[in-house]
Amino acid sequence: LDLRGGSHLVMQVETDKAVESSVDKIVASLQTAAASQALAVTFSRTGQDVSAKFAGPLEDKVAEFFKKSYTVLESKSRGKGELVYSLTKNEVKRLKEWAVTQALERTRRRIDSSGVREPAIYKQEQDQIALQLPGVKNPYEVIDFIKKAGKLEFKLVDADPARLQQALAGKTPEGREVLYEESTDETGRIVRRPYLAFKQTLLTGDRLTEAKVGMDQFGKPAVSIAFDGEGARIFERITAESVGKQMAIVLDGVVHSAPRIQERISGGSAQITGNFTHDEAARISIVLRESLPAPMKIVQNVTVGPSLGQDS
User: DSSP string covering 140-180, please?
Assistant: First the structure.
């Protein structure tokens, strides 16, 4: 930086989000396994805990199901028709350390793909990553690219217009949230379309094995994705249980499309559509392939001039 000038950034990894994402993944796997065994139980995430709700005398059977499925979960509380489990302290510690390591590696690969030459990227303190980007005078475009977590989520949409209006008026029904789809009209103005989505994440991008630029049914650029074996099974179960409903495809909190599920989808493939240019679809593909295990926030942003280089 002294020789060429550039930007010095320090990013903090929000490791708690990585733990929550891991719990979402566990919930989806548990639900799929329970469905295959005809076990009438509904799993959900509450904070960093897993809740199981059921009717009738199933407590011992559900507890045994937890024990066989995940050894990293331990019983937290029991109530009538509900069991709550939490991750062990060692597993939480491991996930947070893994999140920082993965964020470091994937940030390095994103920077390499963005064309910045000779960057220096290294871990700083427990949960921070420092970046020195030579030659980058205006870092904001690079920052935006780095900060995108690449968190892909699939959520069901509550299609009731009355509840949507209620939520937009500030009274969001329990278990739901308002998310927006952004597009550009003919005048170039950004238009935001609201959706009332269920908070529970049914499937995340952790299960992706592929993300590449493709074409939608109208010949426009889109992002084609494919899931691993477990992800494909979860996706098939979700679509089978939700025929006729809308599913929001959400990337970093923004709805990119919300198609109506026409039938059970097997094979583990899907497509993210939108008003993409080819370059935008390519950048989204990179972000998904190198998705961060947790969001990052800027704690330091300094632009350095090439003073030493000029003196030399």
Answer: HHHHHHHH----EEEEEB---HHHHHHHHTT-PPTTEEEEE
